[in-house]
Specification:
Number of helices of chain A: 11
Strand content of chain B: under 5%
Shape of chain A: globular
Radius of gyration of chain A: 18 Å
CATH class of chain B: Mainly Alpha
Number of helices of chain B: 10
Number of domains of chain B: 1
CATH class of chain A: Alpha Beta
Number of domains of chain A: 1
Mean pLDDT of chain B: 91
CATH topology of chain B: MetI-like fold
Distance between the termini of chain B: 48 Å
Largest sheet of chain A: 6 strands, mixed
Number of strands of chain A: 10
Helix content of chain B: over 70%
Strand order of the largest sheet of chain A: 6-7-8-3-9-10
Low-confidence stretches of chain B: none
CATH superfamily of chain B: MetI-like
Low-confidence stretches of chain A: 1-22
Mean pLDDT of chain A: 89
Largest interface: A-B, 20 and 18 residues
Strand content of chain A: 15-25%
Structural class of chain B: mainly alpha
Radius of gyration of chain B: 21 Å
Number of strands of chain B: 0
Order of helices and strands of chain B: HHHHHHHHHH
Order of helices and strands of chain A: HHEEEHEEHEHHHEHEHEEHH
Oligomer: heterodimer
């Protein structure tokens, strides 16, 4: 699996991926607002993601990162504003071309293989070849018959990732998929996600880890108190952030 | 106490010798209660799944009613079924009163709310866990309900056994609609009531022992299912 990711890395550059036209892109977010219990948790966000880049979403706890991802994927309905993917309003058809991996993997109480079969049946029908291929890709083929909930934390997250990738999504949302994982598991997840990106999938990835954002990200979306503080290329974000909140965050000062 | 000791000895003798009358009563009890449990599951599980996965106006009120019906007094259920099945009742033409079918109907009515309410709880807990992932995957409603029932199978089996336990141990409903007729509608619980009132403690005790064994067996089965579920991390 890791060798395969490295091979892809050498043959396709990030620029080539970014220039490929995606039917779900651009993503255009206008005046996006979510109010719950009188609190503006997501506040008038304006955002355009035109390229099939690897987008990292950063910000302190409570900034609205997870809520933004859920709004973009249609798991939450905004109080105001609009979301358009490829010029079209977010719909079930668009959502079916996306996938999401949550911070805490939600696995069915079945075997590893049955977790993959479940989503394959939703799409085209389960085939052993397709299932084994994706399990091989994420390094879980030897665990195929094992109950999914007996896997380690890193393995469970890789299974959740495999379940998302087997749908061949055009957009993949990841909500802190490597939080509380050991370095080896983080590396494996990063390589799988990078391979998916190089294969043409638009990635929107939440992280608190600046090192991870530097390693993976083409562009950074920085949120603070539900607002978009900054959206800039990763190289500029880490060397010369334009917002005071991002500067404070990167310097390790607490941002509330 | 001497009479009691003699009755216990006679009861054990009846059980060990496989007394035909005793076996007949036990088999009828199991047949009626297992059938009632199966029918109640066919009705209660989909209803529980519907309540667990849907929100509609009056949902809370329906939950309150279903939960309240878990405490239905068996004799009241027996009386209602009796009124419907008696010759003057709306279903009197079916001629079901004082038959095992009437007892199955009464027990089904008695335990369906139990199956519904408990299965709703099992499935709702699971649904809360899966809901966001299923929404993300755009899982159709019928697939979602099927997945919840399959993944909650151990919990639901426990629910079914709880329903069976309630059915096999109740006396009020079946004595009203069954009539406790020898070789036709005599169940373990109704026979115990009758034999006790007659002073024939041996048969009553023998049936009581069998009931206790069944209760222990059901509980052992429930515990076994839970342990199996935990062992395979499905719980």
């Amino acid at each position: 699996m890791l060798e395969r990711a490295a091979t892809i890395d050498e043959t396709i550059t990030s620029e080539e991926v970014a220039s490929s036209a995606g039917t779900l892109l651009p993503l255009e977010v206008n005046d996006l607002t979510l109010v719950i219990g009188g609190k503006r948790l997501v506040d008038t966000i304006e955002l355009t993601l035109a390229a099939r880049s690897f987008t990292m979403v950063m910000g302190p706890n409570g900034a609205g990162k997870s809520l933004l991802l859920r709004l973009l994927h249609g798991l939450l309905q905004p109080t105001a504003g609009s979301i358009h993917w490829g010029g079209k309003e977010l719909s079930k058809e668009i959502r079916q071309r996306q996938a999401m991996v949550f911070q805490r993997p939600v696995l069915l109480r079945r075997s590893v293989a049955a977790n993959i079969d479940f989503v394959l049946r939703l799409k085209d029908g389960a085939t052993a070849d397709r299932r084994d291929e994706i399990l091989e890709h994420v390094g879980l083929i030897d665990h195929a018959k094992q109950p999914a909930r007996l896997l380690s934390g890193g393995e469970q997250q890789r299974l959740a990732l495999a379940r998302a990738l087997v749908l061949e999504p055009e957009v993949l949302f990841l909500d802190e998929p490597t939080a509380s994982l050991d370095p080896a598991s983080v590396l494996m997840i990063e390589q799988i996600v990078r391979a998916a990106h190089l294969g043409g999938t638009k990635i929107i990835f939440i992280t608190h880890d600046p090192g991870q954002a530097k390693r993976l990200g083409d562009d950074i979306v920085f949120l603070h108190r539900g607002r978009l503080s900054e959206h800039s290329p990763a190289s500029r974000f880490f060397t010369n952030p334009s917002s005071a909140a991002a500067s404070a965050y990167l310097e390790g000062r607490i941002v509330l | 106490m001497q009479d009691f000791g003699g009755a216990v000895a006679l009861a054990l003798q009846l059980i060990l010798s496989g007394d035909a009358n005793l076996i007949e009563i036990i088999l009828l009890s199991l047949q009626v209660s297992l059938t009632a449990m199966l029918i109640a599951c066919l009705i209660g599980l989909p209803l529980g799944a519907l309540l667990a996965t849907s929100r509609f106006p009056g949902h809370g009120a329906v939950l309150v009613v279903v939960n309240a019906l878990m405490g239905l007094p068996p004799v009241v259920v027996g009386l209602l079924v009796y009124l419907h099945l008696s010759r003057a009742g709306p279903l009197g033409w079916l001629g079901l009163l004082y038959t095992p079918t009437a007892m199955i109907i009464a027990q089904t009515i008695l335990i369906t709310p139990i199956i519904t309410a408990l299965s709703r709880q099992v499935l709702e807990d699971l649904h809360n866990e899966y809901a966001e992932q299923f929404r993300s995957l755009c899982v159709p409603k019928h697939t979602m309900v099927g997945a919840l029932i399959w993944d909650g199978r151990y919990g639901l089996l426990t629910v079914a056994l709880a329903g069976f336990g309630r059915a096999v141990a109740e006396v009020g409903a079946v004595i009203v609609v069954g009539g406790n007729i020898d070789h036709l509608t005599r169940m373990m619980t109704t026979a115990i009531a009758l034999e006790t009132s007659k002073g024939d403690l041996a048969l009553a005790l023998a049936l009581g022992v069998v009931l206790l064994i069944i209760a222990l067996g059901v509980n052992a089965l429930v515990m076994g299912l839970r342990m199996t579920a935990q062992r395979y991390a499905y719980a």
